[in-house]
Specification:
Chain A is an alpha+beta fold. Chain A is about 30% helix and about 15% strand. Chain A is globular and about 60 Å long. The N and C termini of chain A lie far apart (about 45 Å). Chain B is mostly helical. Classes of the chains: A alpha+beta (about 325), B mainly alpha (about 450). Chains A and B meet through strand 4, helix 5, helix 6, strand 8 and helix 10 of A and helix 5 and helix 6 of B.
């Protein structure tokens, strides 16, 4: 509880800084002079101490008191490959996706792509349109990596490039990946992507590589949804959960039995109990850490999910029986 | 000293075959080298431009490279299996074919793994397999098994070569200097004394058992790469024995084809006889029955239990891959059975034809195990990029596949330039055995 509340406190100053930074980028391209002055402002901004002290839990379990303003510097700390194998102490991350609320707004996909420098078709978070059988009604199904407790991908990796951390997150160290793709064939959820060719963005070394950010990607290696541990370390929600306009994605800590979608914070166990939460393809025995709440009492019409979509995205769902029905009726 | 005279005779008979290169075979070698060069260009392009230029994408992450890999490793495994058994049971007609089998074994275990390397995204990090090796991974088992098998097969092949190297060393005074030096070096001082012969025989026999065991382990581990995953179509308890049976099936097929070609081009009708084809044909018949049985059990169980995922897979197999499925699993099994079952049909040509059908069918069977399974994952593919939905191999992949086959044939021809394809020492052994038996018969007669 303690750290979650702290986390919520921290989100605010940081996100304003981020906005400042973006604004800075825009303005400086217009006017160099204005840019310089803004940079100097920003530096002053960072040096200034607020005097307000905040107590924080460090990764190794100590409570320290730091100045509120210096918290923002912490996220920039680079997490090395070795550090990223350990995980955040005493955490057990879990995600709950409320299918009743999802209207395929694709904000989770887009923000994730932006944060991880992914191309249009590269999606760590995919939104499938699932129709379990011809009689049942389809539903939008956001699908990240399930960060299984019995991850088949980790078992088969010959070099330990993909690993399971103590906090439940499954990550890939693309410095160690040899690109054999065995993990991709063993993942029953098709969660993994391969970098088939070279891209300019791979050469961008502005940000040093960390398995926690998955950026920059590397040719000939595998990548996937990472649950954004870099944000988790800052006490923020992953990009997908943060950006969802409907509050579909709850994220939290199983140890504390708490999940939040940024608007409401609820007990994980109660949410699962009351809403009959389930895990996709439970029978495979992979024990995912992503739970789904069934699409009952939906908040919006399924068809709304087709609004404002690129033709190419709509085409993806053409094999779903319901979509074919819609097309036949001329409603799509 | 009639033994020495016989050796000289044999060396005289076989040496021209290894030393002379006809114009036809020169053209043939040139052609093979050209194919390999095209393959090398393709390889270079793949390295420079990345795997993007292959047909492999996120769903079908392994394409015909891995199919070729399974195919060649299974050739090697079945070669080792057959060579080991031939040697161990001292079958009288084995001599003429044993070296063909052994060479197939060694060449395919050298070429097969190259194909798996072509699947790997980061060849520059290949040594990570050893530095960061995780023994829990079936790939680590595969690396261990294949390396052990490779070393074992090389040793075995060398052991069977030693007596012939010795004969060539002692009886080829006219040979160029480098060749004589090479034979002297390779014969490692073997003088064919009684104690040397006995020792070599014992070691070879032990190794023949070992390579059978190693071959079974290697191919089992290879089958596990697929069957230990959760994929519908792969997750099957019978995959390892299925692969073992299918391996011998295609292996014996390739042996028959090799026997046919070598017999024809090197005019060895005297040594490779119809009896060999009939014998191999009978093994092919038995294996085709077994292979058909396994194939049927595998797909019948999937169809009868009809879980959603299996249903989806079978729909794809009988829809999009209908003709491939028919060819691989009906024609590829039934045609060899019919040809070999009817005694009248058992001619050298028809047995070879059956073998060709079996080999092609089996390659396609492997394709159907790999590709359609990856195209029908648990979570349906929802994508608009055609190359991500269906796999279709590019010229790069085909060029490299043919380069692999060309390399196989080329190395075969080159090895036949080093050592006679019919083991001379084996002929001598047979004759010696024959004499001993005759002697025993006369002795026994005297006693009576």
């Amino acid at each position: 509880m303690y750290s979650t509340i702290m986390a919520n406190k921290k989100i605010k100053p940081d996100s304003t800084n981020r906005r400042n930074f973006l604004r800075l980028g825009l303005l400086s391209s217009v006017s160099a002079v204005a840019g310089v002055s803004l940079v100097s402002n920003l530096i002053q901004d960072e040096e200034k101490t607020s005097g307000e002290k905040v107590r924080l839990l460090t990764p190794d379990g100590n409570i320290v008191e730091v100045d509120a303003e210096s918290i923002n510097k912490y996220p920039e700390a680079h997490i090395t490959s070795a550090e990223s194998r350990k995980g955040i102490p005493d955490k057990k991350f879990v995600m709950v996706i409320d299918l009743a609320k999802c209207k395929n707004a694709r904000k989770c996909v887009e923000s994730c792509q932006k944060a991880h420098n992914l191309d249009y078709h590269e999606e760590f978070m995919k939104i499938q349109l699932m129709q379990d059988n011809e009689e049942s009604f389809p539903y939008w199904f956001p699908k990240p990596c399930f960060h299984c407790d019995e991850p088949p991908c980790v078992t088969v990796c010959p070099t330990g490039a993909t690993f399971k951390r103590d906090d439940g997150i499954v990550l890939i160290d693309n410095d160690r990946c040899i690109g054999c793709k065995f993990c991709m064939t063993s993942c029953p959820y098709s969660a993994r992507l391969f970098n088939w060719g070279h891209k300019d963005s791979f050469d961008n070394t502005d940000q040093p590589y960390s398995p926690e950010t998955s950026v920059p990607a590397a040719e000939g290696t595998v990548m996937k949804c990472d649950f954004c541990p870099d944000l988790l370390r800052q006490g923020e929600l992953p990009y997908c959960a943060k950006s969802c306009p409907m509050g579909v994605i709850y994220f939290g800590d199983k140890n504390e039995d708490i999940v939040t979608n940024g608007e409401e914070t609820v007990r994980f166990s109660e949410l699962i109990k009351e809403r009959s939460g389930y895990r996709h393809l439970e029978h495979l025995g992979t024990r995912p850490n992503v739970y789904y709440l069934p699409a009952v009492n939906r908040e919006s019409l399924l068809e709304n999910g087709f609004k404002n979509l690129d033709e190419e995205i709509i085409e993806r769902y053409k094999n779903v029986p319901y979509v074919q029905e819609l097309k036949n009726k001329g409603k799509l | 000293m009639d033994l020495e005279i016989r050796k000289r005779e044999l060396a005289k008979e076989f040496y021209p075959m290894i030393s002379k290169t006809t114009r036809g075979s020169k053209i043939w070698i040139g052609f093979l080298i050209a194919i390999i060069l095209v393959g090398l260009v393709a390889f270079f392009l793949q390295i420079v431009k990345g795997h993007e230029i292959t047909g492999m994408r996120d769903n079908v992450v392994w394409g015909i490279y891995i199919i070729n890999f399974i195919f060649f490793v299974c050739l090697s495994y079945s070669g080792a299996f057959i060579a080991g058994i031939l040697h161990f049971f001292k079958s009288p007609w084995k001599n003429s074919v044993s070296r063909i089998v052994e060479i197939i074994t060694i060449l395919s275990i050298m070429i097969g793994p190259i194909f798996i390397l072509l699947c790997i995204g980061r060849l520059d990090r290949l040594h990570y397999l050893f530095i960061y090796s995780r023994i829990q991974s079936p790939i680590a088992w595969d690396v261990l098994a294949i390396l052990t098998d490779l070393i074992g097969c090389l040793l075995y092949l060398f052991l069977t070569f030693i007596p012939d190297f010795a004969i060539l060393r002692d009886n080829c005074e006219n040979a160029p200097k480098w060749r004589r030096k090479l034979y002297k070096y390779l014969a490692i001082g073997y003088q064919d004394t009684k104690s040397q012969r006995d020792r070599l025989y014992k070691i070879t026999k032990t190794m023949s058992v070992m390579i059978v065991a190693m071959a079974i382990i290697t191919y089992t581990v290879l089958a596990w790469i697929f069957s230990l995953t959760l994929q519908p179509g792969w997750n099957s308890t019978i995959f390892a024995p299925y692969f073992i049976v299918a391996g011998i099936y295609s292996g014996i097929g390739v042996i028959i084809i090799a026997m046919f070609l070598i017999r024809k081009y090197y005019k060895l009708e005297h040594y490779i006889r119809k009896a060999h084809f009939i014998g191999a044909g009978i093994i092919l018949l038995v294996m085709s029955l077994l292979y058909g049985y396994f194939t049927f059990s595998e797909y019948f169980a999937r169809w009868f239990s009809h879980s959603t995922a299996n249903h989806f897979l079978l729909d794809t197999l009988f829809g999009r891959y209908f003709w491939e499925f028919i060819f691989a699993n009906y024609i590829g099994v039934l045609v060899p059975i019919v040809i070999l079952f009817v005694k009248k049909f058992r001619t050298i040509k028809s047995i070879t034809f059956a073998a060709v059908i079996a080999v092609l069918g089996l390659w396609l069977n492997r394709y159907l195990i790999v590709v359609p399974t990856l195209e029908t994952p648990y979570i349906p593919i929802q994508d608009t990029r055609p190359e991500f939905i269906h796999y279709s191999s590019t010229w790069i992949e085909w060029a490299l596949s043919f380069a692999g086959i060309a390399a196989f044939v080329l190395f075969f021809i080159l090895l036949m330039k080093l050592i006679p394809i019919i083991p001379m020492s084996g002929i001598i052994d047979n004759e010696r055995e024959h004499k001993r038996k005759q002697k025993e018969v006369t002795q026994n007669n005297r006693l009576w």
